[in-house]
Design brief:
Layout lengths: L1 E7 L3 E4 L6 E3 L26 H10 L3 E4 L23 E3 L4 E3 L5 H11 L2 E6 L6 H12 L5 H8 L10 E4 L14 H18 L4 E4 L12 H10 L5 E8 L6 H5 L1 H23 L6 E9 L24 H16 L4 E7 L8 E3 L5 E3 L3 H10 L3 E3 L2 E3 L2 E2 L7 E2 L1 E8 L4 E8 L6 E8 L5 E8 L18 E2 L4 E3 L2 E6 L3 E8 L1
Parallel strand pairs: 1-21, 3-4, 3-12, 4-7, 7-8, 8-9, 9-10, 10-11, 11-12
Antiparallel strand pairs: 1-16, 2-15, 5-6, 13-14, 15-19, 17-18, 19-20, 20-26, 21-25, 22-23, 22-26, 24-25
């Protein structure tokens, strides 16, 4: 099979915001307790943070982490998670049917972010609570001193403000599963007032309006249009959430899910711009895709009600999942002009690229590798390539290109990176690469993830599914030819 990709520096989509490689930690399962936080563990520091997990998060290159939810946040009283630990209440956590001890809260998360070299993306409760509690939390986190909540933070032992710049206005408020779910008009009003008051406390923050919980919601589109019509002037981003699975064990359709993602993103952009035109505004609303992942292995697994940190939603990922994650990341980069934030949900144990044993070790799941590699090398500008590729039809999609690809140009480091997935299960792809205007650039590295059984997984002590190095692709005048193995994720880097 032959394919061709042509790209030039002038074919710029937009600057890549580093926050597109963000992630998410919710008080769910073992994401916090036994995941990032485990006092007494041999690898935990004096604050109870697992240093083995922190090192892998740094390896992933995660610049921003959303917290504390998720469905959890819609019933969360942030005051429960601050102050002396021994005085914090245990709560029945209704979102996931467990007991929340509140031994890990806002200040612990901020300390953890500093250790993990990540910025916090805080969510406020607009379910059971409202704008007043939201602005109080901003004051607690960001105001220097001489006010009720800033002085409360100081009394808890944190003199300097945390300076949280990014805030989510609730979570999935259109979903009937959400505590105090709302209509679009109800939510738009509350989110608008919350954002307004939060910004009055700290004018430097940015806020994210809740979009639809997924593309499949009955109210999708109308929800975005209605809430934005109310809150447009006081918010900065609208959120998107979507998970993809392979319940039917249909590999061709599963590998093509990024086409659905592409259409979803485009639909929300169109809605944002419709409201912009309707309001005759000069302001552009960008996108925060703050929940996305592959999720289908663990759906519906029962847990003991009111237990503490049970094994909830612990997907063990395989090779085909890693290929799909790579395709989804490529699609997010293809919309780098409008998608400025994205959060892989979640980060540890709960549908996550990092998996731990409580009291024991840790390993990188298969999905860890494409994320880490693209976070490391997809820098600078995203370029829009012209792709010529054979296509296939499958049960869910038509005209699916066998080649999924994006090119990035890191002008600061004089580096071009090509990321590509060969969706074919049978044929190698002979890829002709033409990078116009980069005549002084030579291929310096060719890494790939290929040759594995599609159901092959990693586990403790055996991370067999991972990236490996290949001989450099052949150069033929101004073009480069690379052989992409069947079912492969590939990274080819060029330097000046």
């Amino acid at each position: 099979m032959k394919a061709k990709i042509t790209v030039a520096a002038e074919m710029k989509i937009g600057e890549i915001d580093r926050r597109i490689f963000g992630s998410f930690i919710e008080h769910l399962g073992r994401a916090v307790y036994g995941g990032i936080y485990e006092p007494g563990h041999p690898m935990s520091d004096k604050d109870g943070m697992r240093t083995d997990v922190i090192e892998l998060i740094k390896e992933m290159g995660v610049p921003v982490v959303r917290y504390p939810g998720g469905n959890f946040v819609s019933g969360y009283n942030w005051e429960d998670g601050v102050g002396p630990v021994e005085e914090r209440p245990k709560r029945l956590e209704l979102a996931w049917g467990v007991t929340e001890p509140n031994t890990f809260g806002t200040n612990e998360f901020m300390l953890w972010c500093q250790k993990a070299k990540a910025s916090p993306m805080m969510a406020v409760n607009l379910g059971t609570r409202g704008p007043d509690e939201a602005r109080a939390l901003v004051e607690y986190c960001n105001h220097k001193s001489n006010s009720k909540y800033s002085d409360l933070r100081i009394s808890h032992g944190y003199k300097d403000p945390w300076g949280v710049k990014l805030w989510c206005l609730g979570n999935e408020m259109d979903g009937p599963w959400q505590m105090c779910a709302k209509t679009a008009t109800e939510y738009g009003r509350i989110a608008n007032e919350a954002s307004k008051m939060m910004k009055w406390v700290d004018g430097s923050i940015e806020t994210v309006l809740c979009g639809s919980s997924s593309r499949g919601m009955r109210t999708f589109g109308d929800w975005e249009a209605t809430t934005l019509d109310i809150a447009y002037d006081n918010v900065d981003y609208v959120s998107l959430h979507q998970y993809y699975g392979n319940h039917a064990n249909d590999l061709p359709s599963f590998l093509a899910k990024s086409l659905e993602l592409d259409d979803f993103i485009y639909s929300v952009i169109c809605t944002c711009d419709f409201v912009k035109a309707k309001k005759r505004s000069k302001k552009t609303i960008n996108l925060s895709f703050d929940e996305w992942n592959v999720w289908y292995h663990s759906n519906g697994a029962p847990v003991e009600r009111w237990s503490f940190a049970p094994n909830q939603l612990e997907d063990i990922y395989n090779f085909e999942d890693a290929l799909v994650v790579a395709c989804l990341l490529i699609t997010l980069l293809r919309h780098a002009d409008r998608v400025k934030i994205a959060c892989l949900a979640q980060l540890v144990n709960v549908i996550a690229p990092i998996f731990t044993k409580t009291g024991g070790g840790v390993f990188r799941q298969t999905t860890f590798y494409p994320f880490a590699k693209m976070s490391q090398f997809a820098r600078g500008s995203a370029l829009r390539p012209i792709i010529e590729s054979p296509k296939y039809d499958c049960k869910e999609f038509c005209d699916v290109p066998y080649l999924e690809s994006i090119v990035t140009y890191d002008e600061e480091n004089d580096e071009v990176a090509l990321f590509a997935v060969n969706r074919s299960a049978e044929e190698e792809m002979l890829l002709d690469i033409s990078i116009l205007g980069f005549e002084d650039y030579k291929a310096v590295a060719f890494e790939s993830m290929d040759g594995y059984d599609i159901k092959q997984e990693n586990t403790f002590g055996n991370e067999s599914v991972k990236m490996h190095s290949n001989p450099l692709p052949e150069e033929n005048g101004k073009n480069v030819t690379a052989c992409l193995k069947p079912l492969s994720f590939n990274v080819i880097r060029f330097k000046k």
